[in-house]
Amino acid sequence: MRGKQVAFGLVTAFLVVAGCAGPQPAPARPGPLAGQTIEVLAVWSDEEQAAFERVLDVFEQRTGATVTYVSGGDEVPTVLATRLAGGSPPDVAGVAQPALVRTLARAGSLVPLDPSTESVIDAQFAPVWKELGTVDGELYGFVFKAANKSTVWYDAGQLGPGFVPPRTWDEFVETLRKLSDTGRTPLSVGGADGWTLTDWFENVYLQTAGGAMYDRLARHEISWTDPSVRTALQTLGRVFRPEYLPGGISSALQTEFTESVVDVFGADPKASIVFEADFVAGAIAESTPARVGADARVFPFPRIGPTSSVVSGGDTLVALTDEPGTKALMQFLASSEAASIWAAQGGFVSPNRQVALDEYPDDSTRQIAEELVGADNLRFDMSDLMPSALGATRGDGFWRAMQDYLADPAQVDRILAELEAEATAAYEEGDS
């Protein structure tokens, strides 16, 4: 055990010294973790996987450790459950749902972060981010790759040089109305993916009801039939109008997220505005000829309340083993330097407030990152805070309720009553 403590102390000192000078070349001799292997399981694939592996390369060069990355895609929770059941968990995992982090921690599957890593998080992250990784007073993880889900994207070419992005909800509604009055269908909505609709609701609810009510609804301390929910839906209904959507409501319910982006930035656009998180940039790059920051521009989700509010999502890194290599990697990944390596490559936003804005490759991403880190009122994606049966199931729960509301707002009483019944059952099962 003493040998392991010494090795971890050596790599900690090495990372601190080397971190001051930026990425270093591979050491001339094996590092303090030579011969150790570390496995990381997370959602990232394709370009994201390649970017994350560049981060891991720097860690390997400095320490002599070998890090293997496994992409679980959307099946990370299932893969992780299988690995845990088989007694062979990865050393580190990226988990998108704080609710799952809580479940794993309370089941004894996670290893609390060591004091050195916690000190990095205390110094470089706002307290709200630490709270997200804390379960029953113990810190188990941190958000490495975040999403700013309070962004609205528009095609600058379609709207012209005189377009002024709306700052308030009333201005946003008026913008949509004016575009519609000129014969254009302004707003693309990917309603086939229910999570895009829950993101709409969460932004509106945070601003109309406030942070405290948002927290209570996420924990099911108030009912889904509460008047505050109806108020948010009615506010949202001001933009979910058939004349504002290409093909009307029925078409929006059949449009998936990527298609909604293509409908704005593709070669044959059907609308000029689309709402979703900063990962819209990835869909633009992969599926359209538009250039982020030039053709594709962004403005903050229009204000309804008095302060700036941001709904965030992201992937929380947690440790499942207490090996020296695991501890050293977690400490490195918590650092602003590790985040900056990916930030420079694009397609990434960090909640680490010590990542310099000029590390990001374009003005739009810099703006998105600045709004995320500087938000007065930040909350995590509500659906990811809920039991997965309620908040993350295609065609059911929260996702289905929002699709039903888009389809027929007049049925709001039935929709909310059914959602409340599902929420009651989900929380009684203890899946939170």
From TrEMBL:
SUPFAM superfamilies linked: Periplasmic binding protein-like II
Keyword field contains Transmembrane: no
Signal peptide: 1-28
PROSITE patterns (alphabetical): PROKAR_LIPOPROTEIN (PS51257)
Superkingdom in the source lineage: Bacteria
Pfam families per the UniProt record, alphabetical: SBP_bac_1 (PF01547)
UniProt keyword terms in alphabetical order: Signal, Transport
Keyword Calcium: no
InterPro entries: Bact_solute-bd_prot1, SBP
Similarity field: Belongs to the bacterial solute-binding protein 1 family.
Protein name: ABC transporter substrate-binding protein
Taxonomic source organism: Pseudonocardia adelaidensis
